Amino acid sequence: MTRYAALLRGIMPSNPNMSNEKLRGVFTGLGFESVASVLSSGNIVFTTGETPGAELEKRIQEALSAELGIAGGTVVRGYAELRALLDRDPFAGYTHGRETYLTVTFFKDSAHSRVEMPTDTDPRTKVVGYDDQARAFLSIIDNSAPNTPNFMVWLERNYGKNITTRTWLTVQRVVKKMESPK
């Protein structure tokens, strides 16, 4: 049995069909164990003996769509992958805060074999790099101005909707929850 995190795209906590209780219910109904939610933005941790990858992501997404009408995407990462990302500390020397977001954009397993670094991003976005092992794009976004930098638009335009972004703090919280499943 392995511990995983499902990072769901497009979850809006204000939508009654997207509540943590209902999301956990779908995962429990799929036969997963130790199902728990992290925050209220589509982060579900669970345990299963299934092999990770596209088939597991597809099975979860089909259940979310059929039972709750959630059409967004599902990206699954194992505990070891996320723990190793934290241990590599790609944001060393930076601090996540209200005006500076450290972000991790996760790609589905087979979404892209090669990720190109942007050359024309908003000046308020600093690209840290792409982490091959975690299959994740790492960036720092300056939120000090009232309008949001267009980096997320750039990511979606270049890589489609088979991605989902979390703040570094959220990734840390997900890993912590995976370490203590109750």
UniProtKB/TrEMBL annotation:
InterPro entries: DUF1697 (IPR012545). This is DUF1697 domain-containing protein. It comes from Nocardia speluncae. Gene3D superfamilies: SP0830-like domains. SUPFAM superfamilies: SP0830-like. Pfam families: DUF1697.
